[in-house]
Design a protein that fits this description.
four-stranded mixed sheet, single chain, globular
Length: about 240
């Protein structure tokens, strides 16, 4: 899916992929106009553009994609769709700042070595460093598809997550987490220590309940009262 125009016909096409269409439907159900969103692992821009449309012209999307090939496609698709509320960054989210070894395979990429993957070097940043560098004082939502880096990213983002309390929609990759001796339960447990309530989401079937053993994503959020209390303490 290199080049696309995000219109009604394209949305209809996406229905052929329960995974991609389910992601789109879920994101549209929780996003609101005016939100500031960070997306890690934007790939070629399908969800980045959907998010940009959902948050509207008063909202903003910071979309990060580390692989040059995918980043070029991301730029082209944002331009092709005349989206003006997306800022693009050729970066990976990680637990470090600087140069990082990545593995590109098929339509994806990440820090874990997949079969027949191409090894490349990419630039990386932590979530906290990115927010500080770009002066993001109001982070309303995080969308992540980072293929095995989930736990590492959250570990280095504790201050941002505790202070700004953005809801998080995160795809989970069990095989890649296992290769790093981690698990979905580790990701969920860490987010809970920050005060989040975490739900398992199966985007292929949003109408049915899922569990952490079989979910495709997790959705982490804080109660409105808890979020308000934390933000009051910052003032």
């Amino acid at each position: 899916m290199t080049e696309f125009t995000f219109n009604a016909a394209f949305r209809h096409e996406l229905r052929e992929s329960a995974h991609h269409y389910g992601e789109l439907v879920f994101l549209e159900s929780v996003l609101r106009p005016g939100m500031t969103v960070i997306e890690g692992g934007a790939n070629r821009g399908v969800t980045a553009i959907a998010i940009a449309k959902a948050v509207g012209t008063e909202g903003c999307v910071h979309a990060l994609e580390p692989v040059p090939e995918y980043f070029d496609a991301l730029q082209q698709n944002v331009s092709r769709n005349r989206i003006h509320n997306v800022a693009l960054y050729n970066l990976a989210l990680s637990d470090m700042n600087g140069c990082l070894r990545f593995y590109k395979h098929g339509e994806g990429s990440g820090v874990t070595r997949a079969k027949d993957a191409e090894s490349i070097r990419v630039q990386a940043t932590t979530l906290s460093a990115f927010v500080s560098c770009h002066g993001i004082s109001k982070l309303d939502f995080i969308n992540l598809d980072c293929e095995g880096s989930e736990l590492s990213i959250f570990r280095k983002a504790s201050s941002i997550l505790k202070e700004q309390t953005p809801p998080i929609f995160c795809e989970v990759h069990r095989d890649y987490l296992k290769m790093m001796k981690q698990s979905v339960q580790d990701v969920v447990g860490l987010l809970r220590t920050f005060g989040y309530t975490v739900q398992p989401i199966q985007v292929e079937d949003l109408n049915n309940d899922s569990n952490f053993e079989h979910c495709s994503h997790v959705y982490a959020s804080m109660s409105s009262s808890e979020s308000r209390n934390r933000k009051k303490k910052r003032k």
